[in-house]
Amino acid sequence: MTTAMSGHILVVDDDKAFRVATRTLLRDAGLEVSLANSGAEGLVLLEKASFDLVLSDIVMTDLGGIDFLREAKRRQPELPVIMVTGFGSVETAVEAMRLGAADYLTKPCNNKELLIKIDHALDGRRKDREIVQLKEELQGVYSFGNIVSRSEIMKDVIDQIKQVAETDVSILVRGESGTGKELVARALHFNSGRRDAPFIPVNCSALPENLLESELFGYEKGAFTGAQKQRIGKFEEAYRGTIFLDEIGDIPQSVQVKLLRVLQEKSFSRIGGNEAVSVDARVVAATNRNLELMMRENDFREDLYYRLNVFPITLPSLRQRIEDLPLIAEHFLERYKELGGNVRKSLSPEVLSDMMMYSWPGNIRELQNLIKRAIIKTRGEVIERIELSAEQMEEQSSGPGLSADETVPPFREYLSGIVNNAEEKYIRLLLDTHKGNVNQVAKLMEVDRKTVYRKMADLKIDPDAYRS
Ligand SMILES: Nc1ncnc2c1ncn2[C@@H]1O[C@H](COP(=O)(O)OP(=O)(O)OP(=O)(O)O)[C@@H](O)[C@H]1O
Ligand SMILES: [Mg+2]
To answer: Which of 101, 337, 424, 462 is deepest in the core (most CB within 10 A)?
Structure first.
């Protein structure tokens, strides 16, 4: 053994001479050692302290080594146990291995062999722990249904998802197009007790009025011309699962009425039928439209709005969490690498910096499409060109848009909006190029650190998100 070992070993043996000699040997090798003179005492110690490995005799007077092993593995299945047998009892050794012993040795033990076996078992234990950890990390990512983010603002959104996933309350996911509304709906479903039942998406804007109704609720044979046999609707398909009503702002008035009734009564009947079908589907709806405005203009029913809006989750635009961009871009470069002949491409610093300045009207979906296209078009490994629309780049520096259908803000407010916007871009760009180093940012802006921290707090910028 070239390096000292580390770990806490429990030695169980009713032979005092063996215990003491082994303790000396193991301590010299760098290990921490506890002794038990019987299987019963061994079990007591296992409860009291945490061990990395157990070395146990097989033949002991009270609780035999095999019974001790069985009990120890029952309590701590991951704990490696090396058994020591008196000479000749191969059968017991086989039995021990069958019960999950990590290894076995015959007495009298060769010291070197004993140390090698211990080292080996400890190493296996470390690797097992690493694998468990990696698995947990992977699940962490996966169970958030591919939502990649590191910004504070998305952390809040993810916390909200975690908070309500297990409940049955209706959720309304809001956000500009391409911000990941469907991704959130899926994350809600796959993190709920309904995950083994279906997730049924319905795009409410894709179908004309009468088709949407039969899509949602199904129909009986003969309900209308062409209804040659009974068909169940999406609410029934989503039994015990989740129904995702995408683009809910686009459903026509007549369907709004029917939907409201279904949500209130938790049952409905198929078109042309009168049998009540009970609903057991969690409802997640999504929209990028301004439902409040639609309500005021009587395009969206107020009662339905309140039914759906029990728990709104609003997704920030990509502009509002531009610090997530490098991470999400990496995610897409990896995910779509086969489009570029399985070569993992990367973005040049200039391209990345242009992307950080861009306004992303199409949000993450736009980013996704741009990256896919760039992977296909780029011959080498580094993406040096990306097709951002120049118009959108300029709009960024001119401050918040003004339009006639919204109230025009007071001039001062409008100006400060422009200043904030510019400041935010500037600080984010510096943070990005200097990996979150606030000292550097302060220096380059020729202000003190405190000022930068205050501005970042006002603008909800998290410098940690830039440190990688
Ligand atoms: N945080 C994220 N990390 C990784 N991928 C994301 C993230 N957010 C969105 N995406 C991806 O971006 C694409 C658009 O997301 P999604 O379809 O959920 O958006 P949406 O808000 O429903 O868009 P639309 O309004 O256009 O329907 C999807 O391919 C999704 O996987
Ligand atoms: Mg969508």
So the answer is: 101
Give the whole-number percent of the chain exceeding pLDDT 70.
91
Distance (Å, whole) CA 174 – CA 419? 27
Q: Which atom of ligand 1 is nearest to the CA of 178?
A: 23
CA dist 209 and 253 (Å) reads 9
Same domain as 96, residue 23: yes
Residue 10 DSSP class: E
Ligand 1 pocket, 179 CB below 6 A? Answer: yes
Nearest CA to ligand 1 atom 16: 180
The pLDDT assigned to 401 comes to 57
Residue 373 falls inside a structural domain: yes
**Considering every ligand atom, which ligand is closest to the CA of 371?**
1
Q: Which of 314, 347, 368 is the last residue of a domain?
A: 314
Cα 379 to middle of ligand 1, angstroms: 27
Would you say residue 362 lies in a domain?
Answer: yes
Query: Cβ of 269: how many Cβ atoms within 10 Å?
Result: 15
Q: Six-digit token pair at 240?
A: 């015990």
pLDDT tier, 400 (very low <50, low <70, confident <90, very high otherwise): low
Q: Is 226 within the bounds of a domain? A: yes
Ligand nearest to the CA of 186: 1
What CATH number does residue 21 fall under? 3.40.50.2300
Q: What digits encode the pLDDT tens for the residues 71-123?
A: 999 888 889 999 988 766 677 888 888 999 999 888 888 899 999 999 999 99
Domain residue limits at 423: 407-468
Strands (E), 213-304: 218-219, 231-232, 242-246, 267-268, 277-278, 282-287
Question: pLDDT value at position 460?
Answer: 85
Give the whole-angstrom CA distance, residue 394 versus residue 358.
9
Domain count across the chain = 4
Q: What local confidence, expressed as pLDDT, does residue 86 receive?
A: 74
| Ligand 1 within 6 A of CB of 175 | yes
Q: Which of 146, 314, 365, 366 for a ligand 1 pocket mutation test, highest count of atoms within 8 Å of Cβ?
A: 365
Distance 178 CA to ligand 1 centre (A): 5
Strand partners, 103: 82
DSSP summary character for residue 372: H
